[in-house]
Amino acid sequence: MKLIIAGSTGFVATELIRQSLSNPLITSLIALGRKPSPPPNPSTLLPNADLSKLKSVVLDDFDCADYPDNVKSDLANADACIWTIAITPPQLTTVPWETTVRVCRDYAVNGVRIISSLTEKRPFRFVYISGTNAVRDPARKPLLLGEYCVLRGEAENKIIEFGRASGGRVEVAVAKPGIISGPTKETGVLAKVFFGVIGIGKVRVGQVAGALLEGVTGGFETETYENGDLVRVGSKTVGGVE
Ligand SMILES: NC(=O)c1ccc[n+]([C@@H]2O[C@H](COP(=O)([O-])OP(=O)(O)OC[C@H]3O[C@@H](n4cnc5c(N)ncnc54)[C@H](OP(=O)(O)O)[C@@H]3O)[C@@H](O)[C@H]2O)c1
Hints:
InterPro entries: NAD(P)-bd_dom_sf. This is NAD(P)-binding domain-containing protein. It comes from Cercophora samala. The chain is α/β, with parallel strands linked by helices and 242 residues long. The chain has one domain (2-235): NAD(P)-binding Rossmann-like Domain (Rossmann fold). 38% of the residues lie in helices and 17% in strands. It has helices at 11-21, 69-75, 97-117, 146-165, 189-197, 205-218, 227-235; strands at 2-6, 28-33, 54-58, 80-83, 124-129, 170-176, 179-181, 202-204, 224-226. A 7-stranded parallel β-sheet has the order 3-2-1-4-5-6-9, sandwiched between helices. Strands 7-8 form a two-stranded parallel ribbon. Helix 6 crosses helix 7 (227-235). The model has no long low-confidence stretch (mean pLDDT 96). The structure holds NADP nicotinamide-adenine-dinucleotide phosphate. Residues 7, 9-13, 33-35, 62, 84-88, 103, 129, 131, 177, 179-180 line the site of NADP nicotinamide-adenine-dinucleotide phosphate.
C-alpha cells in the first residue's frame, strides 16, 4: 500500500516513518512536508527497514486551495494518509492565532479533500492527529487552552463530517493522544505529576505510531482513538515499547 505521512519532519511523523520502513504492508511511503525530510538516522532503524520505498515530497505552502501538479502527481493513488501537521501548545505564543487556525484546521481539511480526490483506492483512509483535550462541542471549552481545544475539536468535526459524507469512499479516524513521550523526548517528572493531576494520560510515541499504522493498514478499530486506545493497540505492535 501507499501511505502519506503529512508533517514528516515532526516528532510523531519521524516514528511513523521509522516503523513504516519495516512494515511489509507499506510498499510506498511519501514523507510530505514544507521542507525536505531528513534521511532517517540509521542507528534508529528497525530490522528489515527498506529505505528504497521512502520519498520526500515538499509542498512549500500548504495554505492553498489546491496543490501544485508535481506534488499532486507524487501524492496520487495513495491508500492512506496520516496527518500530523499542527501548531502545538508550546508554539502558541510565537505563532499568530490566525496562522494557528489555518495550520491546525484548514490545512488538514484541504488535505483530506485534495489527497482523497487523487486516488481511486477504496476506502482511502485518513487519520487526523488531534489531542486528548480537544472538544467537539464549544460549550465544553476547557479552562486550560480553551480556544485552542475548541479549534482542534472543530477540525475533528470537519474531518469526520467529510468522511461520513463520502459514502464510504473515505474512512476517517481521529487520534486523541495525551502527552506523548519517546526516546528523543522524555517527559520530566514534574510535568508527569502535573499532567496526572489534571487528568491527561501518557502514551509512548511508538504506541501512537503502531496503533495508527495498524489502523491504516488493517482497518480502523474505531473512529476516535482515545489515549487509552492508542496505548492498548500500540502496545501490541513492534514499536510499542519505544
Ligand atoms: N507531542 C505531543 O506530546 C502531542 C500530544 C498530543 C497531541 N499531539 C499532536 O500530534 C500531532 C503531531 O505532534 P508532534 O509532536 O509530532 O508535532 P511537531 O513535532 O511540532 O511536528 C509538527 C509538524 O507540523 C509541521 N508544521 C507546522 N507548521 C506548519 C506549517 N505552517 N506548514 C506546514 N507544516 C507545518 C512541522 O513542520 P516543520 O518541521 O517544517 O516546522 C512538523 O512537521 C499534532 O497534531 C499534535 O497536536 C502531540
